[in-house]
Each structure stands twice: as structure tokens, then as C-alpha cells.
Amino acid sequence: MIKIGLIGFGYWGPNLARNFNNNPDMNLAAICDFSDDRLKAAGRRYPQVKLTKDTEDLFNNTKIDAIAIATPVSTHFDLAKNAILSGKDVWLEKPMTEKVEQAKDLIELAERNKKVLLVDHTYVYTGAVRKIKELIEKGELGDLIYYDSTRINLGLFQQDVDVLWDLAPHDISIMDYLMPFEKLTVSATGCHYYGTGMVPKALLTINMGNNTVAHINVSWVSPVKIRQTLIGGTSKMILYDDNQPSEKVKVYDKGVEISRTKKQLYHMKIQYRVGDMFAPNLEGHEALTFETEHFADCLLNGKKPLTDGKAGLEVVKVLEASKKSLEKNGAPVPISS
């Protein structure tokens, strides 16, 4: 039985606590939060769990095997570092860290201490994304061309990060899992509203190897909630709509074929291919439940997490470069290797 402690019982923490508590291989042993009201709420739901305001109570508890961190990103590095140094495996909420160097330090620290480090890129564990990955690996889409996503809604404004650091990690992690090409440059544009200096709407353009490109549109100031991703291939194309209760993934046998004739060397011949659409059957497993099972399996059997520290690092690389591009009014910025 894995004894796990949770730091942070705010927005995401309750979801983690529920899944840890329901997992047969885990024992939710302690919850830490600085808020009296949140600790009281945790105590009502989990009366058997030790409650504390002091993170050291978790770090110093030798009976706790792992610590999950669901706190603002500015605290991630120090908390994860202390957890690893205290001999705990770590579940770390996205984004992994504020800086690339911090992410690299955590990866090295976890490897040196032989500890599991999982970064909570929940969407990678959804049935929809895993099915898309399966289709890509089978060659159904042909050569990949682009990744185009829209993740917009009205609110929720965050106090510590802008919309890029809040919403874009979802799509960057999905893109990196489905299209693990080298990321070369990123151009980020955004709008400052309300005189706060916060960026609630932004657009990323990521140029990658294999002549592929990604566009990621994120916003807290949209009148409608849209969660759509288009993935283009030379053979087929995919629409992934996470708002749909069913048929979240639709595969379209559509495309463009370009050729040149010998007599008209300088004239392109364009043909459009329009075929059938099908919606593959998806697993109904809750993504966070599947991710929790995966984390337990990694701890019990020495496996490498699907979204390990290196996956978290790739997201932070894009976010850090995006911040620099925003400051330069959208000028392309190289993504660190």
C-alpha cells in the first residue's frame, strides 16, 4: 500500500484526493494546506486523514512514500525538491516549474535519488488522446502536417500566472505526446486588458522539425467555451472536440493532393479528396483515475511515467520561450534544446 500525502487542497487538489482515496493501491495519509476552510473541507470528506498547515510534517513523515503537489507554479520547485530529498516519490501539477533550469534540476535530482517524478499532464491520459496516438502510430494519418488547437472560455482568471501558463500547457503536452518532433521556435502574441499587466488572451505559433507547425489559441475572455483540436496529416485528418459528450474524436478521410504535369512544369494540379468520416470507440475511463493507476504502477513496479520530468521540461521550454516572445511583441524566439 502506497501512503501518499497531498500538498494543496484548492482547485485541483480535491480531484487528486478523491482519486488517491479511491485507488486500491494507495492510502491517502495526509493533506496540507494553509487555509483553515480548505482543511476543514478536507477533514469532512476524509476524516481518517491527517491534516496540517506545515509541509514539513509531510516531508519528515517516514511512513509517507509519495507526495502530490497541487500548488501555484511558483512553489513547485522548492516543494518538489524537498519532497525528493526527503525520500518521497513526487506527483507534480502542471506546469512543472517556472524555469527551464529548475525543471532540469528536478529531473537530475529525481534520477540521482532514484525517485519517480510524474508531471500531471492529465489530458495525455484521456481515452481520446490515447486513441489519436494509436491512430498516428498505425499510420492512419500519413505524414503529420499541423496541430491546431483552440482552448477558450470566460474565466477563470488566475492570480499568479497568465493564460499561457494556465491553459497552454494542456495543448503543448498533448502536441508533444502526439507529435514528438523537435521544437525550433515559438512566436507568442497576446493582449493586456484591464490595466493589470496580465495576459488573458494569447496565440502561439510553434515551428517544429519535419516541416510541421502548431497554432495554439488560448483565452479567458471568450463568450463561449471551445475545446477543439485539429490534427492534419497527408492521408487523414482528425477533429478532437473535448466538449462533446460522445464522439470526441472524428477521423476524416479528407486531404489535398498536389502534382505537376510534364507539359505544365510550372502549373500545379490540385485535387481534393473527400471520403468517409468515422468516430472510433473511446475508453470511458476517467483520465485522472487512469493516471493515478499508472502512478501506482510506476511506484510498485519501477516503471517510467508516461509524463515524466522530461515531458514536463518540454512544456516549460515552450512556455519560457513564449514569455520572451510576448515581451518582444511576437518576435520568434528559439526554444532551448
Describe what this molecule looks like in 3D:
- By secondary structure, this protein is an alpha/beta fold.
- The protein folds into two domains: 2-115, Rossmann fold (3-Layer(aba) Sandwich), CATH 3.40.50; 134-279 and 317-334, Dihydrodipicolinate Reductase, domain 2, CATH 3.30.360.10.
- It has helices spanning 13-22, 36-45, 56-59, 76-85, 100-112, 127-137, 163-178, 287-301, 309-327; strands at residues 2-7, 26-32, 50-52, 66-69, 89-93, 117-120, 144-154, 183-191, 201-208, 212-219, 221-233, 237-241, 249-260, 268-278, 333-334.
- Helix 4 runs parallel beside helix 5.
What topology emerges from the helices and strands here?
Layout: E1 2-7, H1 13-22, E2 26-32, H2 36-45, E3 50-52, H3 56-59, E4 66-69, H4 76-85, E5 89-93, H5 100-112, E6 117-120, H6 127-137, E7 144-154, H7 163-178, E8 183-191, E9 201-208, E10 212-219, E11 221-233, E12 237-241, E13 249-260, E14 268-278, H8 287-301, H9 309-327, E15 333-334
Parallel strand pairs: 1-2, 1-4, 2-3, 4-5, 5-6, 7-10
Antiparallel strand pairs: 7-11, 8-9, 8-15, 9-10, 11-12, 12-13, 13-14
Helix pairs in contact: 4-5, 5-9, 7-9
Shape, principal axes of CA atoms: globular
The profile of the biggest β sheet is: 9 strands, mixed
Number of strands: 15
CATH architecture of the largest domain: 2-Layer Sandwich
In round numbers, the mean pLDDT is 94
The SS-based structural class is alpha/beta
Radius of gyration: 22 Å
Give the domain tally.
2
N to C succession of SSEs: EHEHEHEHEHEHEHEEEEEEEHHE
Strand order of the largest sheet: 14-13-12-11-7-10-9-8-15
Superfamily (CATH H level) name of the largest domain: Dihydrodipicolinate Reductase, domain 2
Low-confidence stretches: none
Strand content: 25-35%
Helical residue percent band: 25-40%
Distance, first to last CA: 39 Å
The total of helices stands at 9
